[in-house]
Amino acid sequence: MSLLIFAYRKQEIIRRKNELNFKLLELEKQLMDLHSYSTSISDGAISVDEMMHAPASMFNRMSIFTMYSHQSALAGAQENFGKMKASGMLDTMMASIQPQQQEAYRQMVMENLYKQGRESFSKQEEKILNEQDKQIQQQKAKLEAQLKLLDAEEEKVTTGEDAAAKKAAPGYVA
User: Fold this and answer.
1) Which helix (H) or strand (E) holds 171?
2) Nearest to residue 24, comparing CAs of 128, 129, 16?
3) What angle do CA 82, 84, 87 make, to 5 degrees?
4) Confidence check: pLDDT of 161 > 70
5) pTM here?
6) Least crowded by CB within 10 Å, which of 19, 63, 86, 146?
């Protein structure tokens, strides 16, 4: 009877190990996708090529990031440009520039403010990604610990199963 109990328990351990290994694979895929996404947004902008080669699980997030980072950076740049104008700082900088080049200078200032806004938005997103990465790493560690415990239990069950099989075997004397 104990042989059947050991065999049943061994099958349950194998089933549970398969489930845990599948969950580990899913977590690994999530980590790879997060790292790919993190690399794509590191400079604050996502190119069309990066968008086309993005993992499927990150495509929507990349699209949303692109839209919101643009809107946030543009609004921030306009606000900061307005503050520079109101404070007179822009006029002071323009005083030393020839009138023909002043519009180009204004555009350059606006572009720099926009880039700073995109980089700021990208840094905020990277903080979120780092937190998600930590959570996934913790989940992985828990699953790996459970797998080690199941491996140890499987060894004990296998030993018990072998011992039960020896006991159950008929002993013929010649």
Assistant:
1) none
2) 16
3) 105
4) yes
5) 0.76
6) 86
Q: Which helix (H) or strand (E) holds 98?
A: none
Q: Which two tokens stand for residue 164?
A: 């039960």
Burial label for 150, CB within 10 Å (0-12, 13-18, 19+), is middle
Residue 55 DSSP one-character state: -
* pLDDT tens readout for residues 120-152: 888 899 999 999 999 999 999 999 999 999 999
3-state secondary structure of 46: coil
Whole-angstrom distance, CA of residue 106 vs CA of residue 165: 86
Q: Across the chain, which distance is largest between two alpha carbons, in Å?
A: 116
Q: Is the predicted pLDDT of residue 66 greater than 80, yes or no? A: yes
CA distances from residue 128 to 23, 75, 103, 125 in whole angstroms, order as listed? 22, 22, 38, 5
Taking Cα atoms as reference points, which of 30, 19, 37, 13 lies closest to residue 138? 30
Q: One-letter amino acid identity for 171?
A: G
Which residue's entry shows tokens 């059947």? 4
Look-up of token digits 């190119």: 47
Q: Map residue 121 onto helix, strand or coil.
A: helix
